[in-house]
Write a structure and sequence with these properties.
Distance between the termini: 42 Å
Order of helices and strands: HEEHHHHEHHEHEEHE
Oligomer: single chain
Number of strands: 7
Radius of gyration: 29 Å
Length: about 280
């Protein structure tokens, strides 16, 4: 092996250097493993990612040792990509299947959840809209102001002659929708940028927005042609979805309680396992 093929270890970041030594019943949680695990825990900053990774590895250590203590047998399985799980991961899975049980969710609980969360089971409102895009970058102030001014002129013209929208879109819009007279088809929440939606969703059917809508793409002339309100989905349609959600929530809670019991009986140093995300965990 050549010298150039050996990768030098990456220098520790300030967050990693500040991390205390973490042990579980005397077993050291490898700092390099915490660094690798942190990639699986997106967080606003490196310190929070490291804390989340450390928690995950401490929990894994607790579960592995408990599985070994109870003599839980491993039956490693392959995933859809042909990768086989480790013996330890298989033991943890078997341990949780053995130790965790949750009751069936009663029908009355399903109905109550539906009644208390009806907004979650409503189809999206649909907005049939058209626009004319006058392109400009916000950083280029003169060009952006010119685009806004042109949009204002088009709005004034359309207020006098609304039937000309499609013609003006074909002539002036820089959006591919110009080919269809500016039509964007049916839009639901999240399909366009927030500043565009703020104006569009507050228009009345058939209303032309009285001011240019400013976005990072430029200035828009916006017309709401039609609004199709969403519909409430009946309980029968979403019953299985609710049951699955509540079953998973119940199982997750039970696992959390089980881990808390294991942690209470263990000697954990360098980490407060009970602290929640976005709070100080390293001790």
């Amino acid at each position: 092996m050549s010298e150039t093929s050996i990768k030098a270890p990456q220098p520790m970041t300030p967050e990693e250097q500040a991390m205390p030594a973490i042990t579980v019943n005397g077993v050291v949680i490898d700092p390099a493993a915490i660094r690798r695990e942190a990639a699986n825990h997106p967080a606003p900053d490196a310190k929070l990612a490291l804390e989340a990774a450390a928690r995950a590895l401490v929990v894994r250590e607790l579960l592995i040792k408990e599985a070994q203590r109870l003599g839980v047998e491993a039956s490693p399985e392959r995933d859809e990509k042909g990768r086989i799980e480790t013996t330890e991961d298989s033991q943890v899975t078997a341990l949780l299947e053995k130790e965790i049980s949750t009751p069936e969710i009663e029908e009355s609980h399903l109905q109550r959840y539906y009644e208390n969360n009806q907004a979650k089971f409503r189809s999206e409102d649909l907005y049939e809209a058209s626009h004319i895009l006058l392109p400009a970058r916000p950083a280029e102030q003169d060009a952006y102001n010119a685009a806004v001014g042109q949009a204002e002129n088009l709005i004034a013209e359309l207020q006098a002659r609304p039937e000309r929208f499609a013609d003006l879109a074909r002539e002036f819009s820089a959006c591919p929708s110009a080919a269809t007279g500016g039509s964007l088809g049916q839009i639901t929440k999240g399909q366009t940028v927030p500043e565009f939606e703020t104006f569009l969703f507050n228009l009345e059917e058939g209303q032309l927005c009285p001011v240019p809508v400013r976005t990072s793409f430029g200035a828009h002339v916006v017309l709401l042609e039609r609004k199709i309100p969403g519909r409430q989905m009946p309980f029968e349609m979403v019953r299985e979805q609710i049951a699955e959600y509540l079953q998973i929530a119940s199982w997750t809670q039970a696992v959390g309680q089980y881990i808390s019991l294991l942690a209470a009986e263990a000697k954990i140093e360098g980490l407060d396992l009970q602290e929640g995300r976005n709070t100080r965990a390293f001790r």
